[in-house]
Backbone:
């Protein structure tokens, strides 16, 4: 063979690399619809790690007919809530404000009663409502045992609710999200790994190492030698590898499209990356 071979092969590998234990992979080989120089390999690499933070999204609100009264009531409610959480004397616990919203109107019960009586629901009886959404964050969650973490979380939730915080999930029109909530309930706790850069590096290496090994094997079976890498491209969530819509949704729900990973359970979080790697194919002896 006097010149580099031109071989178009697409290799799709779904790779799982747990923190401990052997890796497992399955593959499907097919001829590419368009010619490429060398071997093109699609691989998904993954790495896992424990969440370090736990976040709860809670709302505080107060209303009154006059804006000045609403502000006073809201400030009092917030002071009581923060004082209650400070009373836990937990240095890993912080409350981060997500901003304040102001709305006008009357409560739903009053509006319904007036409508049933044929009364106009105009400006009379309207109130000014002030609402603040805050993130209650517990750090160093990875340093606690499962039971210790559960005890701390439940205590924080109880104190926060008694102090006036209301916990709920935001509205969604995502079909898979609605299905998940129907099965799981109204989950208000998120387990997070704010900085996933180390896991991403591990996942990149896992995908690239597997791509090299599989491409080298294909080259050997073809009577050729594997050359240098010609290109590496990252694809989002592995959609190009025929992953179904639900798996793509679960990747998105786990925060894989962001630097922060998150999940609804205290178990390990998984970072997945999908790479398309093109190798040069050299003539064999």
Residues:
């Amino acid at each position: 063979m006097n010149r580099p071979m031109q071989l178009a092969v697409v290799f799709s590998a779904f790779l799982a690399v747990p923190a401990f234990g052997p890796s497992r992979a399955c593959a499907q080989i097919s001829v590419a619809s368009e010619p490429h120089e060398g071997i093109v390999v699609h691989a998904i690499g993954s790495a896992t790690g424990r969440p370090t933070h736990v976040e709860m999204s809670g709302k505080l609100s107060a209303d009154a007919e006059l804006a000045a009264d609403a502000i006073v009531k809201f400030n009092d409610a917030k002071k009581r809530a923060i004082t209650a959480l400070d009373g836990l004397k937990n240095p890993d616990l912080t409350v981060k404000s997500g901003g304040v919203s102001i709305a006008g109107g009357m409560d739903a019960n009053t509006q319904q009663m007036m409508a049933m009586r044929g009364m106009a629901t105009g400006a009379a009886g309207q109130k000014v409502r002030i609402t603040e959404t805050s993130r209650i964050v517990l750090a160093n969650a990875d340093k606690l045992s499962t039971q210790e973490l559960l005890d701390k979380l439940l205590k924080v939730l109880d104190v926060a609710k008694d102090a006036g915080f209301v916990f709920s999930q935001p509205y969604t029109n995502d079909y898979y999200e609605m299905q998940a909530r129907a099965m799981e309930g109204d989950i208000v706790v998120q387990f997070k790994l704010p900085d996933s850069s180390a896991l991403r590096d591990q996942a990149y290496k896992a995908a690239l190492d597997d791509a090299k090994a599989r491409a080298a094997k294909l080259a050997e079976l073809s009577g050729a030698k594997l050359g240098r890498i010609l290109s590496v491209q990252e694809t989002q969530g592995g959609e190009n590898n025929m992953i179904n819509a639900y798996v793509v949704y679960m990747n998105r729900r786990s925060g894989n499209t962001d630097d922060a990973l998150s999940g609804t359970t205290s178990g390990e979080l998984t970072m997945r990356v999908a790479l398309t790697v093109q190798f040069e194919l050299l003539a064999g002896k």
Q: What stands out?
A: The mean pLDDT is 76. Helices lie at 67-86, 108-116, 146-162, 175-184, 197-221, 245-253.
